[in-house]
Fold Short C-terminal domain-containing protein.
Amino acid sequence: MKKFFGTILQLIGLVTIIVSSIATTELVCERKMLYSQIKSELDYSNKTQIDSQEIALLFAAAFGIILFVIGLILLITKTKKQRQLEAELTTFKYILENGEEQDNAIGDLERLFELKQKGILTEEEFGAIKRKLIE
C-alpha cells in the first residue's frame, strides 16, 4: 500500500511540475507580447496580474517537487514489518547454508511454511529449503 501511495504522489508531483512549467512558459510569452504594447495605466495593471500568476505557478511547481520527493521517500523506505520479515528470512537462510544442526526440524518447517504463506518465499524456494532440512 505504501508503494502505491508513493507512486501516486510521484505521478501527481510530476504532473504538477510539468503543468506549472508549461503555464509559466506561456505566461512569459504573453508577458513579452504585453511589454511591447505597454503604453497606458491599464496595461500596467495587466503586468501586475501576470506577476501574481507567475508567483502562483512557482508555488505550484514547488508543491509538485515536494510531492515527488515524498513519493520517492515512500517508495525507497521499508516498513518495520518488511525489515523484520527480511531479517527473519536472512537468518533462516544463513542457518541453512552454514549447515548448523537444528534440534527442532518441525518448528523450522512451520516457520518456513509461515514465510511461504506471507509471500516471502516462493513455492520453489520453499521446496528447495524443505529438501535441505529433510536431508
